[in-house]
Amino acid sequence: METEQLDIFTENFVPKGTASRQEVHEKGEWHQTFHCHVVKREKDGIYILFQRRHPGKKVFPDCFDIAVAGHLMAGESPAAGIREIEEEIGLKILYTDLHPIGLFKEEIHTNGLTDREFCHVYYFETDAAIEQFSLQTDEVTGIVKIKLDDAIKLFTGKVKDVEASGFSQSEDGSRKQVSLQVGKHDFAYHIPEYYPTVFSSIQSSLAT
């Protein structure tokens, strides 16, 4: 994985060549990623889904994060990121099913790495029960849902914690239902404006 080639860019999103994933993170090169948020309408409201990162991940282990995310390889367009949805949570959808939210520029320093990303951000709505999701076990160890309104309150600082419910999955594939209170510290870090902007955009889009 560390030898995979990624396109690299200037901070103004001007292409400047390719580099291995390892080199990209060691040198802090700007590169492209695909983010896809998953939402569900239920009788009591709209929910946003989060994956739980595997505890063996190098960065933000065991934290909740965007439902689906991954790197774009050298030469790939954002549409290629659709593969991450099936790989990580087992849902087969088309790129045309996605709703674009925008391009976000993130710079994150963690665990001795400098991660500079141009994030192509989307969302899609599913009617599948989260129990039907098939997880990539070396990447994802669970899925939880949080009411969209509550997620907005959490990431705008209006509340300190919110209710999350879903399931966790063990290495052997066994699952158990979970219900817990989560705060911002339980999530992988993104720039402060990321979640409020994304969630407000989703809320507005679903209201039309």
TrEMBL record:
SUPFAM superfamilies: Nudix (SSF55811). PANTHER family: ISOPENTENYL-DIPHOSPHATE DELTA-ISOMERASE. It comes from Heyndrickxia acidicola. Pfam families: NUDIX. CDD domains: NUDIX_Hydrolase. This is NUDIX domain-containing protein. Residues 29-169 form the Nudix hydrolase domain. Transmembrane segments: none annotated.
